[in-house]
Amino acid sequence: MKMSVQSICQVGEALWAGEDGVQLTNFSFRTVGAFYDPALPEEPPMLRLQVLHLGRAISVDLDTRVQNLIGQISARIPTCRILQNAWRAAIEAYILDLAAKQSGANAPPNALIFRKHGLHRLAGGQWVYICGDMVLGTPQGVTCEIAADVARAHLAWDPEMPAADAAGRLCLRLAQNDSVLLPVWGFTILGSLRSCVSQLNLTTFPSLAIIGGQNLGKTTVAQRFALLYSDNQRPGRCWGQLDARSTAAATIEAISRFRDQVVLVDDLARSAASSETRTRLDLIAEVSRFASNDTERVRLSPHRKPEEQFCQGGLVFTGEFHLNNPSDLTRLTTVELHQPMQNGSSGDRTLAATAFHALILWLLPRLDEELAALRKALDDISFGSDLRLRKNRILFLWSIRLFYQFAAETGAVTAQYVRQAMVRAEEILNEILERQTRKANQFARQSPRGNLCWYIVHAYRENEFHIVSRQNICSDADCVVENDALCIRTDTLLAYLRNATPYRELSKTAMNRRLREEGVLTSHRESRAAAKKIKGQRYLELNLTKLKAASLSY
Fold first, then answer.
1. pLDDT over 90 (residue 135)
2. For 279, phi and psi rounded to 5 degrees?
């Protein structure tokens, strides 16, 4: 018998092969509803079935991206059986055909499933915002579902608090510590709209650094005014908080999963070991570059399949010290804490989340207009120095202005209050811009002009090493040139690099490793870097030809 969709029919609680009367399953369907992804409206990624089985109608959701639809039904209702396995493919085709027929009048966009957090544009042009386990701005008559991994986040808002009250109280709270809280709040709004803002004429998307000493309240500020979501599966925990002691690869993998949300990489603390400090700096520098550049990375999955990674949210990190690369500094907006934060309470987070909820609802119908204004402001800045920092300033002013405009239109504040608040916001952001420009220029002057080999060759040419013959060695500072190689004591070279070059935090282990990476230090069977012996003392043996070649590769 020909196994086709047309051959299958439903009789009671079973599917049958019509011509021969062969029972195919011990279940059937009442309805099959299709849910469409607004980003990919051609094929429904989810079907919702009413399965008729053992006198009951049981709702089952099927993921059409997974081939085994019958297996998904059996996993949900273990007593459901397919009695003719050869008909499996035809039965699954029958389910899809039934969904297409029954969705006829309910074609998209009347039944939608959202598999990503944040902004989505529907077929009719309307914007909606998937706010964790909530859909904001749903058009009338549209049924919406949210993927389970997205709905795990819950906005920590108070549905009983009126929008005007939340906006007014938040304005007062921001004013109490405006030099810190205004940039943080502006970034929260900005990071929550990244999917549309990043389409504009940016150089890089900014990250936010909250820098200060211990016990000043850096993490608390980030948690209360940036991490507005809680984890439904882990009550009491903020959604999107990562530890700075994670590896760079793990941190990048984690932040790739967050879209239109803020992610916190917390506690970039100082360490007594300079090598540990360097490791933490390298980690956050790599992560911030990934977060700011709108480019994809490709990695192999555990199943050896290529997976694309790109940052879709806003990155905040807290730490006790600044990044020291000028390029990295210009990707950031840095807020500095010099004294403990005051006047706050645990209710600030609920207040911020409630105001954010109302702000998004207010913004959705006018988002295109606001984006057009932002696009024009960014396009007007297309050349000159400090381009990244000046565009970052525009982004922050735009997001802060959105909040104050929303607060005014809800009646929480007056138009005069908004004008005064924006003057103050400009003062704060101008000060941040000037401070970061100075710091970037300072670090630019201190940045290495070359790698270790470049500085060693430079010192050799300038006679900064005390070169003597083997017979005249009388101290550790004495060096020897033999067989076209510079022989120098490890501590002597390390002292020079620390004192006369920008590599001031270099450790002995790091120096030896970098010299191996630059190709001038050979590994020996003894596993010693200083393998050459002269008068019973060990020396590094650095080939001058290799040093000169390596110095050109920086």
1. yes
2. -60, -45
